[in-house]
Amino acid sequence: MTTRLLKARTLAVSIGCAPGRVYDFVSDPRNLPRWSFFRSVTRSGDQWVVDTPDGPVGLRFVEANELGVLDHYVKLGSGVEIDVPMRVIPNGEGSEVLFTLFQAPDMSDERFAEDAKQVEHDLATLKAVLEDAGAGHCT
Length: 139
What we know:
139 residues; five-stranded antiparallel β-sheet; single chain; Alpha-D-Glucose-1,6-Bisphosphate, Chain A, domain 4; alpha+beta; globular
């Protein structure tokens, strides 16, 4: 039997903040517009609704945990829900944030590359926001 696998790419960024601080910041959806391409975030029942360049999508995170798991699910307007694995792990006195991106079966290689660039940009922004001494997120 052959197992069909999706093309995947795990992107990472090192952040000079303790893992607990990074986790607390990233796990709060209200912070998403500060570091991701999501333009705004509002609460709707048990999920969040985020405004993207392609329109609104639903968003929910896994339950809060002490393992650094930030997996979340994005529900598109079509009703399709996308699983997005994400972790914060210790790296010395700082953190490593890992984000795994999967290429959907109907997604072109070009779109997958664009999505990866967007995630890289978002992770770099997250690093800058958290390491900004004036913001106080790492203290």
